[in-house]
Design goal:
Layout (H helix, E strand, L loop, with lengths): L1 E3 L5 H12 L5 E3 L10 H4 L9 E5 L2 E4 L1 H11 L10 H29 L8 H22 L13 H15 L9 H10 L2 H11 L2 H4 L2 H6 L5 E2 L2 H9 L3 H10 L2 E2 L9
Parallel strand pairs: 1-2, 5-6
Antiparallel strand pairs: 1-3, 3-4
Helix pairs in contact: 1-3, 1-6, 1-8, 4-5, 4-6, 4-11, 11-12
Length: 262
């Protein structure tokens, strides 16, 4: 299998963790022009022009991290990442949904400020908003930890691997779990798994290279995807003018449905 990915993508991270938990062989590639929204060749794999995309064989490519996880679990059911109990499965889906939408948007906004240099005059206020909301979601996640010490049920599984990238990335942005909290202890247990340790190391190695991307944005080589909850967060946090400025400078983008037409 070929996984189109970027080490910093939390969506890609959760796919890599699952592949590694199941011991499945895969190769990684970064799409040409990743982040630019350009490149009709990659649109064959993911018309959203995002990562990840999993090329299963010559005739099948999957995109959207949740769809990819569901395929991997269905095609390779052992070791099971989904709990057997229907209610526990539903809880995992809730955790994944909240993390992939609300939590991802906060970390993404912090990336806009730190790496892409958006709104230097509003950076402090935007970071303060992100810090408050990160604490709220981390408190919510902590309440989901079960007596076993995991989010999924008796063992590490779906809920844990879906939440882990977001909590780790919060730490990179300066908002780790509260010291001495159950969430901090959970993250340490998660980090101890080889699948997670390798995936986190790949992301952490990208922090220094990401310092160069603001110049790429100014040069027009990046067009950041302002979709769904990302757009909502930036507006809610007081950055509407950031969006308008990005539109004026043509360095933000929205989903191009023309890519779906082939």
């Amino acid at each position: 299998m070929l996984l189109y990915d970027h080490p910093f993508s939390p969506y890609g991270q959760k796919v890599r963790i699952m592949l590694r938990e199941k011991g499945l062989a895969f190769t990684q590639a970064m799409p040409p022009g990743v982040g630019s929204g350009e490149g009709d060749d990659y649109a064959r794999h993911n018309p959203r022009m995002e990562v990840p995309a999993l090329v299963v064989d010559d005739n099948a490519t999957l995109y959207d991290s949740t769809v990819i996880l569901e395929y991997i679990e269905d095609a390779h059911p052992l070791p099971a990442m989904r709990p057997a109990d229907p209610l526990q499965r539903a809880r995992c889906r809730l955790i994944e949904e909240v993390c992939d939408t609300h939590y991802e948007a906060i970390n993404w906004g912090l990336g806009e400020i730190r790496f892409f240099g958006r709104a230097p005059d509003k950076a402090e206020a935007l970071r303060a908003s992100a810090g408050r909301e990160t604490a709220q979601l981390q408190n919510w996640l902590e309440a989901q930890i079960q007596d076993s010490g995991w989010l999924t049920g008796p063992d590490f599984g779906w809920g844990d691997l879906c939440a882990a990238p977001y909590v780790m990335m919060s730490g990179l942005f300066g908002f780790p779990p509260r010291s001495g909290s159950r969430l901090e202890a959970w993250l340490e247990r998660v980090r101890a798994r080889p699948s997670v340790a390798e995936t986190f190391a790949e992301a952490e190695a990208q922090v220094e290279p990401m310092a160069q991307v603001a110049a790429f944005l100014e040069a027009g080589l990046f067009k950041r995807q302002y979709r769904d909850h990302r757009l909502e967060w930036m507006i809610r946090a007081g950055g509407l003018d950031v969006v308008l400025d990005g539109i004026a400078k043509d360095n933000v983008r929205f989903t191009d449905l023309g890519k779906f037409a082939g």
